[in-house]
What does this fold into?
Amino acid sequence: MTSREVKLGKNGAVEQAVSYAVGHRIRVEVLALLNEGAHSPSQIAKLIRQPLGMVSHHIKELRDSGSIELAWSERVRNAEVHYYRAIEIPFLSDEETRALPDEDRAEVTGLILQAIMAESLASFWAGKMLADDAIWLSWRWFNLDLQGRREAADEQAESWKRIVDIEAQSMARCSESGEEAISYVMASMGFERNRTSDPPAWATSGKN
It folds into this structure.
């Protein structure tokens, strides 16, 4: 992120850009689709079954806010066709993250939140979450001291490494068996809550 100009929220605050990006169903569908690769407005309109004019409007809004970027353009007959893509999110170590300027760290955080929310909402609207018998959704806040915060973060890191290993093993089995792999979104988040409070009642009552 330090090698290029900050883009997300270039016409306003990063948090405003993220909120706007996931504030409309068409923008959510566009974001989720562009996570897969570059597409032109006409391709996107066909894939999400929406009018081209409406899709083009939302693509322009997303690009103007820095939520997506132009991948390339090509001349097709007498028209210039533009292809857009999601902004690449780099993998950063803890040390690299701490070394980022505040504006770059805000952009990375915003892009990750944008991707998680877009993928989650798109899956929910498509009924994928309801159809997945192995779905895992959970959240609550935990009150931790500094040592506990670090231990929780380390636990999340180990869990993430294990899931990456599971994917590698799955792909190896698919290569041998010919089974088609299915895409599942895995997200892990841990951050300081805006407010300080006792654990929620439902977290200590034994009921979810």
Remarks:
- The mean pLDDT is 91.
